Amino acid sequence: MTLEQMYTNNMENLILSGFDIWIVIKIFSLIILGMYIIFAFVITRQVKLMTETLTLGFEPIVKILSLFHLIFAILVFLAAIIVL
């Protein structure tokens, strides 16, 4: 039995057993996007702490950008839930 035949037999067994690799990829994508929302929240929190500590004159712009980043991350996650 050649390597190609073994690979074909294994793939046929996976397909026949009802295993769908795309479900795993979709779940993995949603987990990664969820982690990115946590990252965006941490960035927003760090910007808030930074602007309380330092006074440079452009704090409102940085706060708005970090808030837009968090909102965009949440919207991408929701879009992924709908699409996937």
TrEMBL record:
<feature type="transmembrane region" description="Helical">
    <location>
        <begin position="21"/>
        <end position="43"/>
    </location>
</feature>
<protein>
    <submittedName>
        <fullName>Uncharacterized protein</fullName>
    </submittedName>
</protein>
<dbReference type="InterPro" id="IPR043716">
    <property type="entry name" value="DUF5657"/>
</dbReference>
<feature type="transmembrane region" description="Helical">
    <location>
        <begin position="64"/>
        <end position="83"/>
    </location>
</feature>
<keyword id="KW-0472">Membrane</keyword>
<keyword id="KW-1133">Transmembrane helix</keyword>
<dbReference type="Pfam" id="PF18901">
    <property type="entry name" value="DUF5657"/>
</dbReference>
<keyword id="KW-0812">Transmembrane</keyword>
